[in-house]
Design brief:
With 565 residues, the chain is an alpha/beta fold. It folds into three domains: 136 residues, 3-Layer(aba) Sandwich (Rossmann fold), CATH 3.40.50; 151 residues, Alpha-Beta Plaits (2-Layer Sandwich), CATH 3.30.70.270; 256 residues, Alpha-Beta Barrel (TIM Barrel), CATH 3.20.20.450. 49% of the residues lie in helices and 19% in strands. It contains 22 helices and 19 strands. An eight-stranded mixed β-barrel has the order 11-12-14-15-16-17-18-19, surrounded by five helices. The chain has a five-stranded parallel beta sheet with strand order 2-1-3-4-5, sandwiched between helices. Helix 3 packs parallel to helix 4 and helix 8 packs across helix 9. It is elongated.
Length: 565
Amino acid sequence: MIISNQLRRPRLVLIVDDQEINRDVLGMILEDDYEIIYATNGREALEMIEENLDRLSVVLLDLIMPEMDGFKVLDIVRNDEFLKRIPIIVLTAEKNAELRALQMGAADFITKPFEMHEVILARVGRIIELSEGRQLISAAEHDRLTMLYSKSFFFEYANRIHQYHPEWHMDAVVMDINQFHTINELNGREFGDNVLRILGNEIRAFLGETEGIASRFEADRFDLYCMHQADYQQLLDRFQEKVNTLSRNASIRLRMGVNPWQEGVDPLLLFDRARAACNMVRGDYKTNLMVYDEDMRNHELLNQRLLNDLQRAVDEREFCVFYQPKFNVQCDPPKLSSAEALIRWKHPELGMISPGCFIPLFESNGQIGTVDNFVWNEAARQIADWRDRLGVVVPVSVNLSRVDVFDPALEDTLTGIVERNGLDYKSMKLEVTESAYTDNAGQIIGLINRLRSMGFEIEMDDFGSGYSSLNMLSSMPIDVLKMDMEFVRNIEHSEKDFRLVEVVLDIARYLKVPVVAEGVETQRQMELLRDAGCQLVQGYYFSRPLPPADFEKLILREKEIVREN
């Protein structure tokens, strides 16, 4: 092994310069710490590199020399699989030459006239240490399938690059394969391994054209730490085209997140942000590349602040519950039937925060249960309050998130809330999204059956947005279907869309359950749904979500209508 040989005797340094005085000066600086050999031109240097390949630790290479200059040596070394493992420090007085040499693969440079002796020793020592770390990684820490670095050594090496060369503009790139587990299941493990192998080969080919390192970070995630690229879409397209050669029988889609170099930002943070950018395009089939920018940074800071403020918001009652009414449109006039509880957040500094901002955040971070518990308790208290003061029980639907259904205490929690408020179980309806059913069918169905046996009514929310088969639907324990608003949006202008609504209503009749149509905004939409047999409607046509005091006016108005009739 190269490293074990280097540890047994002094490291070997090759000094290449056509000027004898330069060779002598460098030799005197380094001779106490290293074994020194010399060459006077590029051709000589290549011969000595090949002869001493197993022992050579670093080459100090002058760029301007007779016979073969340093640039030619760099070019030959960069394109040789074995020679390129030896780091080269260039010797030059030209600033433009420094940049060109670094772009050609030089590890560092020493300016002429030579700097302080301590600086030269430090530069040589750092490059040798970095190179030996890289060789150790190469020998012991490659992913066997792709021949890329393992994640632990990748970050160790990236940190060294950042430490020793903070002036290098190194970008963090995270690339992922969409639904890779499904590709494996449908096409077999061997096919999946071949996808990873081909990607690994293409990544290594790319790194052969620029400075950088890469890792197969997880089963289907690749991290690249590379010199800044002008066009990352072009790079992603290159990788996509390579895997497309395997895609005759499989749809393989890559996505990429990039965090460009930022002065003083360490690799770990760069990759955290690149991963966040990559996750932003998960499930988005229109976009496959996201570059982390100031807007994303502000979004992340806002998200972290909301997470930090969550418990205080509950304790200080910054959250409030609004109620959107549902009307039975099979009556004339339509009659208030029930409501859906919807959370709102009045932040003391940020003002009203949209649920679209914080609900997905808390769901992805596993904190949504805190919000749901608040809504359940508040909705139950409000139902009881209206019952006691107004003499009317208005059933209210509350959401069960995917996190909630895995809570072993869920049934006890819901039972406690209902009984503390003296409610009938049917007065607090439970909404579960269709996607939750399809993702965890067995566990969800068991839970829902138990809740229904207690007396709760279950609504399948966002029906039509998931992938339920008719066979699955027939086995799902539900009491109400809530039709996704996308079905309703265009029924006035599209016969095809209206026909789809009729299909949903036919399914509901087959299941013998009523349908709630969400997102109804116009009278014509309401009439079409009513005439097609839809029983319940909610949306801005009747009312936007209302605070309790305003919703109470609807209840009183309904009571007045009943009294008059």
